[in-house]
Amino acid sequence: MGGKKQRTLSINAFVGQNIRPLRKDKRLSLKAVAEKLDVSSASLSKIENGLTDINFSRLGQIAEAFEVDVLSLVSNEVIPPRPGEAHIERGRQRLDARDREILELQRKAIFLLEEVLAQKDKPNSTKN
């Protein structure tokens, strides 16, 4: 019975070991994923390190954040990144940036239009 020590991972540690490579493969920061999950970066770090309990609801949120099946988070198999996912994510980020630019341009256009209309509505003081 002596020297045989079999190390088994808790489900928390096992899931954490699967999450970190997913995050790194997608080139996502701890902060970005934490925001998706609505948790602090410290909490996500604890999840990745197997230091906190994960309930089924949180497991589902994590799977959704990484766009993977829940089973892939608890399987023994290495989870390869899906082809093209990084490209898709970069495209989404570019679109988000463009959306913000468009919104800012719309705000500026509205402001300028309001200024022009305000000037038009003012009585012309140069006429006598």
Automatic annotation (TrEMBL):
The UniProt record lists the keyword DNA-binding = yes
Which is an annotated Pfam family here?
HTH_3
Q: Protein name, please? A: HTH cro/C1-type domain-containing protein
GO cellular component annotations, sorted alphabetically?
cytosol
* InterPro entries with a match to the protein in the record: Cro/C1-type_HTH (IPR001387), Lambda_DNA-bd_dom_sf (IPR010982), TransReg_Diox_bact_type (IPR050807)
Which top-level group of life is the source organism from?
Bacteria
A Gene Ontology molecular function term for this protein is: DNA-binding transcription factor activity
Q: Which organism is it from?
A: Mucilaginibacter pedocola
Domain (HTH cro/C1-type): residue spans on this chain: 19-73
Keywords in alphabetical order? DNA-binding
Keyword DNA-binding found: yes
